[in-house]
Amino acid sequence: MKFLTSTMRVLFTILMVLLKFSAFMIAMFAGAYLLAPMGTINSKNVDLSSFTSTPNEMMMVLFNSEYFSGYLFSVTIALVAFIAYLMWQLHEVAVHRAEENRSAHVQLVFALSLCGLFLHKAWWVLAIIIAFTNWRQIGIGMSDVIRRGYSWPSDHINTDTSLTER
After folding, report:
1. Do 115 and 123 touch, CB atoms closer than 8 A?
2. Are 113 and 91 in contact (CB under 8 A)?
3. Membrane-spanning residues where (predicted)?
4. How confident is the model at residue 161 (pLDDT cuts 50, 70, 90)?
């Protein structure tokens, strides 16, 4: 039964990857079709003998195609959008970490993250520090320091007055 379950999980994963890839390629080809009229090729009548290493005829047909130009344009748009998405995810890592830890500082981290986006990156660094700090351990450590200060043994106090009597 475990073999069947693991096999089905692998097949489902492969199917989802193929489905996502197909959807991406359909979107790219649709973008190429829609953006092709904007990709006017101005160098279709170039004399190929002016090149030292002439490209083959099939490559020139591909490079002179408006649909290829539209495809490159749609791929470029998709790449820029993906990079912007990754940058936003990187920028929001502090907020996600604070929410994951159920921190009381989520709103502060979000505000500092936005200040880091629009004002100065030092605010984003401060948001990262606040989000990744284990505040429970810091509270326990500070409580221990205060507790030790109140219960300081009296034998540690320097009562030797021989130095002050000179």
Report:
1. yes
2. yes
3. 12-35, 68-88, 108-132
4. low
Give kind and range of the element (H or E) at residue 84.
helix 66-91
Q: DSSP per residue over 1-50, as a string?
A: -HHHHHHHHHHHHHHHHHHHHHHHHHHHHHHHHHHGGG---S-TT--GGG
pTM of the model: 0.55
Q: What percent of the chain has pLDDT over 90?
A: 12
CA 101 to chain centre: 19
Q: Is 73 helix (H, G, I), strand (E, B) or coil?
A: helix
Q: Which SS3 state, helix, strand or coil, does residue 58 take?
A: helix
DSSP result, 90-115: HHTHHHHHHHHTT-TTHHHHHHHHHH
CA distances from 26 to 10, 12, 36, 73, 75 (A): 24, 21, 15, 15, 12
Would you state the pLDDT for residue 153? 61
Mean pLDDT in residue range 26-38: 82
b/e code 107-127 from CB counts within 10 Å (16+ = b): eebbebbebbeeeeeebbebb
Average pLDDT of the segment spanning 94-100 = 81
